What we know:
This protein is of the alpha/beta class. Helices cover about 45% and strands about 15% of the residues. InterPro entries: NAD(P)-bd_dom_sf (IPR036291), SDR_fam (IPR002347), Sec_Metab_Biosynth_Oxidored (IPR052228).
Amino acid sequence: MNTIVITGGTDGMGAALARHYLAAGDQVTVIGRSRSKFDTLVAAVTSDDPSAAARAEFIAADLSLVADSRRVVDHLLAHHARIDALVLAASFIRQQRQTTTEGHEASWALFFLSKYVLVTGLAPLLRAAERPVVVNTAVPGARADAVDFEDLEMVRGFTFKRSNAQQRRANELLGVLATDDNPNLAYITWGPTRLVRSSFAGEVGKGMRIAAAVLGKLLGQRPDAAVRPIIGLIDDPKPGRAAYRGTTKRALNAGDQDAARLAAAVAESL
Length: 270
């Protein structure tokens, strides 16, 4: 029985993965904000397999808060001997710059700082696994120079496009840090080939919300279909960094110096 930890595991692709691995007989920890959605998810699986309830764990957390991310790490370190797969799938889209109660730019905090805290903090549990894997649903392929090291929180000149590109590139660099620390780790930045149907959580304009709803219904993949490539990568991990769109492998830019620079900057900000 493997231990699978999934952020954003109550909706969309995260929930689809949680259902799959509970049905497969694994221990699944879901990190999210909605206990009711988690209970509904577990009930759907236990209708076929009553034992799933004992293998399902929920940790309530707002991962845009560094304190909550650290609390999650502390809980997992205290209650688990290893983590076989860590899936980073939490999402909340913000078109405008917002600041958390801790003073961080909210999208940067959710889409990168939380992942940094989880990947680095849970490194001992990943090292304890025989074939550990991190799947980070940060779509690969951002420009190599997308990180603004002088203004990581984008106090100046925030745009949704710049913010998105910086988060994606930073998560690729996080893979450099993680695999340098643990050469046995498979670290995968992954994105779907097309839109995935979900509740589209976020604070966005009416135009984006309508477009997502219409296109999702017309062209979007069902979450359980979209995650099939992820399941394959988790079940047969290969050590080192890799990037995929669906099942298609993508090239990754090097970035050892940038990764070290990012780690130093984040350590100072945290």
